[in-house]
Amino acid sequence: MPPVRVEPSARSREIKYAVRDIVLLANQAKERGKELLYLNIGDPLEYDFETPPHLIEAVERAMRNQRNGYSPSSGTAEALEAIRGLAERRGFREVQEVFVTSGGSEAIELALAALVDPGDNVLVPCPGYPLYTAVLPKLSAEARPYFLDEERDWQPDLADLEAKIDHRTRGLVLINPNNPTGAVYTREVLLEILELARRYRLVVFADEIYDLLVYGKERKHVSIATLCDDVVVVTFNGLSKSYLAPGWRIGWGIISGDRVAAAEYAEAVLKFTRARLCASHPMQAAIRPALEGDQSHLEKVRNKLYWRRNLTVQMLNSIDGIHCVLPQAAFYAFPTIELGIDDEAFVHRLIMTSGVVVVPGSGFGQRPGSHHFRVVFLPEEHILQRAFERLAEVAATFRG
Ligand code: PLP
User: Fold this and answer.
1) What pLDDT, on the 0 to 100 scale, is given for residue 217?
2) pLDDT at residue 185, as a whole number
3) Domain 54-292 belongs to what topology?
4) How far is the centre of ligand 1, averaged over its atoms, from the C-alpha of 33 (Å)?
């Protein structure tokens, strides 16, 4: 009997994750003997960054002390206290609930699952980190893109955001600082977003996983949860980026805002945390030392990345047909390409002929007719320099 093909679900067909999908193409280039320069991975541990030792010691100690059973579903008391304490020190208003998860990713998934029903929609930034567009279809809900405005340093286009709201819109996602653009939103923009959330009764999902990786003095990061005590805000963060431990899969969500408005929703989120038992118990032991202990690694990380960002923007902007807005935070730049070809064709030729691996802008969403790619500026300067020299050569082949 011939094998019966297992038919995957219709919703699985909608799932794309360009950041990892591009690796297949990179592997083909490698097989053809290309030396690969990876500018596609948002993982500092792939480059010259190391997890702070006091966090490793805390996890090791927890394992030796047999913190190896399940923890309470929303997190250990120590971790929850540390997260709540930090939120209060930062001026979050009306913290209602805190929950610890397997990476910020799981917090995002649980918070969305507790809100939307099939047919509802949530506004997501375009361009934006593609997790939201992967999770919402799993919930039979729509990820409805609103544009970020490249002409205005990639701040949200508020007119577009409002125009996209309808009677099935339940929430809006704000990635601040943003992946892939590196933008940090102004207080004025955040206040206007809150006004829209109030008017249309939307939950604000504030993804602030890069909040401590802001460079220079151009702009200060403001958490939207510090600006209001009425709108329900779920703020996401974790140990993956600022604390250099993405493989530990530790993140969290903080639900803030009006107590009565948030109560039932917060309980629904907690129900989801119970259904999946808990996040990794020993890894949660790193949360308190991360948030309350030695922070000296942060200054070193920011300093390295400040120079790498400057080099990236300067080299990209010196190439004809490429223009790059200065990222103020995170470790990504999202340059535009005006070379008469689309981003997929550009990235394909770049990888296959030069081995420089970047991600096409379409993996994050972009305004129709515009073309971009995302570069990660985590590598050391000499690698970035080589990569951008090769990139300039490839860009020249399209012009000439
Ligand atoms: N949110 C944004 C904006 C990200 O860039 C990432 C990872 O790159 C995540 C969330 C997921 O983070 P975590 O490793 O905590 O799941």
Assistant:
1) 78
2) 97
3) Aspartate Aminotransferase; domain 2 (3.40.640)
4) 32
